[in-house]
Design a protein that fits this description.
- There is one protein chain.
- It contains twelve helices and 15 strands.
- It is an alpha/beta fold and 390 residues long.
- It has three domains: 74 residues, Orthogonal Bundle (Arc Repressor Mutant, subunit A); 124 residues, 2-Layer Sandwich (Nucleotidyltransferase, domain 5); 154 residues, Nucleotidyltransferase, domain 5 (2-Layer Sandwich).
- The strands form four sheets. It has a five-stranded mixed sheet with strand order 6-5-4-7-8, with helices on both faces. It has a five-stranded mixed sheet with strand order 11-10-9-14-15, sandwiched between helices.
- The longest helix is centred in the last third of the chain and has 25 residues.
- The radius of gyration is 22 Å and the shape is globular.
- The chain starts with 10 loop residues before the first helix and ends in an 8-residue tail after the last helix.
Length: 390
C-alpha cells in the first residue's frame, strides 16, 4: 500500500488528495461510517465518496466494518480506519530525559520508552533517538516502511531572545534547526511542536478533552506550558510561542515570581531535593503525595494561588469551555489540585449555565506530550489542508 495521501503535482492531484483527506478525517472522527453519511459530512457527491472509499480500501487505509440499517433498502455498509495501516513516531526532549512513543492510526501505543540523561544537547540526543526508533520498530514488529513520520516536541519558547536563562531551556539547542536535524538523521518527514501544544492535542484524542472543541491545557512538563485549542484547532501564534504561561508573574510568599518558578514540576523537585528527598519519577511523586510529604504539601499550598491566578487570566482572555491540568504529575496530585484550587469569582467562566467544572484533571497520562508528538503526524496525514488545493 502507498502511505502517501498528498501527492505533489497538478491542482487536480492536490484536490484529489484533499478529498481523500476529507473522507479519512470524517471516519477517524466519527468512527465507522456509511457512504451517505460521509457524503453529507464532507459535501462530496455520493459517487465521489464511493470512488474514494474503493481506493482507500484497496490501499489498506479503510476496511468494511459492518452494516447499518435504519432506512429503506439494504443496510448500508460502514467503513472504519485500519489502525494497523501505518504508524507514527513521537519524541519528547526534556532537560533531564528523552521520551519516545510509536503509535498506530487509532492512537494505540505500540511502544513507549523514557531514557534519563544528564545532557540533552544535540550531540548526545541524535544517536540516542536513532537507537530508540530502531528499538521501537523491532520490539513492536513494525516495518519501517509503515512509519508516516516523526513528531518532535520540546519546551518553548522558540526564537525568543528576552526569555533566556529560565529553568526550562534545553542547553545546546539555541539556533539549531531541530526539524532539519531529525529529518536527516531519521530519514523521515519531521514536525516540530512545543510540548504543551502536543499535550493539548493528545488530551483531545485520548483524554478528558475528547468532547471539547475549545479549551486550555496547562502542561506540567519541564516547566509549565499552555496549549490553547479553539474550534478544535491549536492556536500557535505568529512564531509558535502562544501559551508561554510559565513566564507570567504570579503571586507567592515573596511577592511575585514567574509561574514556573512556583508551580512547575521542576520547582516541586527542587523543593523536595531541599528536604533531602529525591523525586526523579512520577512514581516517586505519587509515593510522596500518598504519604503527604511535608515538602510536597508545602509546594501544593504555594502552587494553588499561583495557578488560580493563571487560570483566571486564561479564562478571561480565551473563554475556554474548561481549563485542564495535565502532564508529568501523578493523577492523584492533579486531581487534588483541581479539587482544591480556589478559583476567583471574577471570571467569564463563572456562569450559571456551565455544563462541566471550570477546572479538570487531564487523563491522557504522564507521556501526554510524547504521544501528542506522534499524534500530530497522524493528524497531518489524515486531516486535509485547504492549502493543498491552492
Amino acid at each position: 500500500m502507498s502511505l502517501s495521501l498528498l501527492p505533489p503535482g497538478s491542482n487536480a492531484e492536490r484536490s484529489r488528495a484533499y478529498n481523500r483527506g476529507l473522507v479519512l478525517g470524517h471516519v477517524r472522527r466519527a468512527g465507522a461510517s456509511g457512504r451517505a453519511e460521509i457524503a453529507r459530512a464532507s459535501g462530496l457527491s455520493t459517487q465521489a465518496v464511493s470512488n474514494i472509499i474503493a481506493e482507500l480500501v484497496a490501499e489498506g487505509w479503510l476496511y468494511k466494518a459492518g452494516h447499518r440499517s435504519g432506512g429503506r433498502g439494504l443496510p448500508a455498509v460502514t467503513y472504519a480506519i485500519e489502525g494497523t495501516a501505518a504508524a507514527a513516531f513521537g519524541i519528547e526532549l526534556r532537560p533531564d530525559a528523552v521520551l519516545c512513543a510509536l503509535i498506530d492510526l487509532d492512537g494505540r501505543a505500540l511502544y513507549t520508552d523514557r531514557v534519563a540523561m544528564s545532557r540533552t544537547d544535540p550531540a548526545h540526543v541524535k544517536p540516542l533517538v536513532a537507537r530508540l526508533l530502531g528499538k521501537a520498530l523491532s520490539e513492536s514488529g513494525t516495518a519501517r516502511a509503515r512509519v508516516l513520520g516523526a513528531g518532535v516536541v520540546m519546551p518553548g519558547p522558540f526564537g525568543a531572545t528576552g526569555l533566556s536563562g529560565y529553568l526550562t531551556e534545553l542547553p545546546g539547542w539555541d539556533g539549531i534547526n531541530a526539524q532539519a536535524l531529525f529529518a536527516e538523521m531519521l530519514d523521515l518527514p519531521v514536525t516540530v511542536e512545543n510540548d504543551a501544544n502536543a499535550a493539548a492535542m493528545a488530551e483531545r484524542v485520548s483524554g478528558v478533552a475528547a468532547g471539547l472543541s475549545s479549551y486550555a491545557f496547562f502542561y506540567f512538563g519541564t516547566g509549565i506550558g499552555l496549549g490553547l485549542v479553539s474550534g478544535g484547532t491549536l492556536f500557535r501564534g505568529a512564531f509558535g510561542n502562544a501559551g508561554e504561561i510559565g513566564h507570567i508573574p504570579a503571586p507567592c510568599k515573596d511577592g511575585l515570581k514567574p509561574l514556573e518558578e512556583i508551580a512547575s514540576r521542576m520547582a516541586l523537585t527542587a523543593a523536595l531535593r531541599g528536604s533531602g528527598e529525591a523525586a526523579e519519577t512520577v512514581a516517586d511523586l505519587d509515593r510522596l503525595f500518598a504519604a503527604r510529604h511535608p515538602a510536597l504539601m508545602a509546594w501544593v499550598e504555594e502552587a494553588r494561588p499561583a495557578l488560580a491566578h493563571a487560570v483566571q487570566i486564561v479564562e478571561n482572555l480565551c473563554d475556554p469551555e474548561a481549563v485542564i491540568l495535565g502532564g508529568a504529575l501523578p493523577a492523584a496530585l492533579l486531581e487534588h489540585l483541581t479539587d482544591t484550587i480556589d478559583l476567583p469569582a471574577a471570571s467569564v467562566a463563572n456562569r450559571a449555565d456551565r455544563l462541566r467544572p471550570r477546572l479538570l484533571a487531564g487523563t491522557a497520562g504522564r507521556m501526554t506530550a510524547t504521544l501528542g508528538a506522534a499524534a500530530l503526524v497522524i493528524n497531518q496525514t489524515l486531516t486535509p489542508s485547504l492549502a493543498l488545493t491552492s
